[in-house]
Write a structure and sequence with these properties.
heterodimer; A: 102 residues; mainly alpha; B: 259 residues; two-stranded antiparallel ribbon; 8 helices; 2 strands; 64% helix; 5% strand; elongated
């Protein structure tokens, strides 16, 4: 077994990690920005703060699902099979916000 | 007869409904992992939306954050509650520990993609290495969560004065309470602690399951199971689960700790 490994080792291609690390830096920088917003924006701008946080969370979700989970590079029918059902979540949030009178 | 069966064979090959083709260009196992994760996303959405609903049922704290005092009359500001860090007792470090936990989980997500990438290249040594780092990240995160829970349950040195129902004497009584349980806590209204336990607990249980799955994958990779099989797709499937756990934490982090 160890022998076979030795002989195939030469055929193993070099790692392709450029996009992975780029995604990591994006996630890290967005998280750092979230902290910055949390502690520098005064409490009066609460709505703006929440909007920024939600926006940044969606950006992070896009990179995790798209790059790390590779969904961006799957076929269209798979992408939509996963994304379209999440409409129900959006619907629930919208319905509760409207009905709750917020 | 022979020509009929040949034409049936032909139509089977060309139609998406007779098998033999993969319209989504992904294996059965991978698709099922995706659909499981979709259903799991609904569970977490339900919990987080319930958090929002219950939170906005309670009055918000309206004063300035500098003179915030915990009370069960309004929902607390998270940064004033989650401000402890191990070995820095009594020092106000808002959200620093949660930030560290976020970093650890994102980092372990990165090592997981690196393991998947190594699997594509059928590089057994690299798969083992990156799986080990991922397991280490997961265990570290769980350790952090154990510390956070302990701190949350035990509470601060000062505690808080609350009027609670005494079930023994069947009367209200005013006492100093420390930390949190499901009935009363020193940070805010009772649902605040309940939702903390349920949401971070449900997520932590996912991390725990993920660590177990990662150990299984590492074991199989180390014993050459995937090398014999000729592909490392199992690393990919469990990788999907692990990234999902990271994804959920991103949302928990925003809606639980930042907002």
């Amino acid at each position: 077994m160890a022998n076979t490994y030795e002989t195939t080792e030469g055929e193993i291609p070099k790692p392709q990690t450029k996009i992975i690390w780029r995604t990591f830096w994006i996630l890290l920088i967005v998280t750092a920005l979230e902290f910055l917003v949390a502690f520098t924006l005064p409490a009066e701008y609460r709505t703006l703060k929440i909007l920024i946080f939600v926006g940044m969370t969606i950006v992070k979700a896009f990179y995790i699902v798209g790059e790390f989970m590779h969904l961006k590079h799957e076929v269209k029918s798979l992408i939509w099979s996963i994304l379209i059902p999440t409409i129900f979540v959006v619907w629930l949030i919208t319905a509760l916000l409207v009905e709750g009178g917020s | 007869m022979a020509s009929t069966s040949a034409s049936v064979e032909q139509s089977k090959k060309t139609s998406a409904w007779f098998g033999g083709v993969r319209p989504m260009d992904a294996s059965y196992g991978k698709l099922m992992m995706w659909f499981f994760l979709l259903s799991d996303a609904f569970s977490f959405s339900g919990l987080l939306i319930a958090y929002g609903l219950i939170r906005f049922e309670h009055p918000a704290y309206t004063g300035s954050p500098a003179d915030f005092v915990a009370s069960d009359a309004y929902w607390p500001i998270p940064e004033k509650i989650y401000n402890a860090f191990p070995f820095f007792h009594g020092i106000d470090l808002p959200l620093v520990f949660v930030g560290l936990m976020t970093f650890i989980l994102i980092m372990s997500s990165v090592t997981m993609v690196l393991a998947v990438e190594a699997g594509h290249r059928k590089d057994r040594k690299d798969v083992e290495k990156w799986m080990l780092w991922t397991i280490l990240g997961g265990i570290t995160f769980l350790g952090c969560q154990a510390w956070e829970w302990t701190h949350f349950i035990v509470g601060t040195d000062e505690g808080a004065t609350r009027t609670v129902w005494n079930y023994i004497s069947n009367s209200w009584e005013t006492t100093t309470i420390y930390g949190a349980n499901l009935r009363v806590n020193e940070y805010g209204p009772a649902p605040f602690a309940n939702l903390f336990f349920f949401i971070t607990g449900f997520h932590g249980f996912h991390v725990f399951s993920g660590v177990l799955l990662n150990i299984l994958i590492f074991h199989n990779a180390a014993f050459g199971v995937y090398e014999k099989r000729g592909h490392y797709e199992m690393v990919e499937k469990v990788g999907l689960y692990w990234h999902f756990v990271d994804l959920v934490w991103v949302f928990v982090f925003t809606f639980f700790y930042l907002v």
